[in-house]
Amino acid sequence: MNYLELAERLNTLGRKTALHHNQLEGLTLAKAADTLARAAEKYEKKLGDYLGGRGPGIRDLEELLKSPQARGHLKLPALRLVFKELFREPPAAEKLAGARKEFFERVKREQSGEQALEALKRFFLLAAQRPAPAKDETSLQNEFLRLGSLSDEALEFEFSGRLKALPLLKALARANAIPFTGETSRDRLIERITHYARRAHANIRHRA
Description:
Blueprint: H1 3-20, H2 27-51, H3 58-65, H4 68-73, H5 76-87, H6 96-109, H7 113-128, H8 137-147, H9 152-160, H10 166-175, H11 186-207
């Protein structure tokens, strides 16, 4: 069915419903009418977005970006990660406000609101399900090897959230024989973990 056929069908249905509205009753018909009304509301919203130049998914994306989930999870490292997933490059902006603006404008320009919406939903689900690793040696060694396979953006996200705590970073380094002292800064420790994790991952790939 094309859009002209849809319009004609809705016009016919509307006239028929208006003509017989005083006679219409029954639970089955009421449920069908309620389902149709919800579908019509959803379609009207998407049509309005499209005709207004906003593109599909933009309104829902705006609402999601204002949600408690976004305020809690969508910090700059997370936004960089989602941005690169969608556009194959990180945002140019180095501050969260600028990166959010760049993200939203890029989504509108490329008409990728629905893709951005799905990417954010997947990210929020992942963020809610990813606790910090256990501190036993085996878990920390497995985590170390996993880190070696991640992109710069993914590593930045990990070290800004679930691997943020300095005691956990020290435990991760200790379990993988990475040297450090009591004077080693958090940033320096992250650099060493990243360097050795990537080297370990490359060695495993080479042997495979």
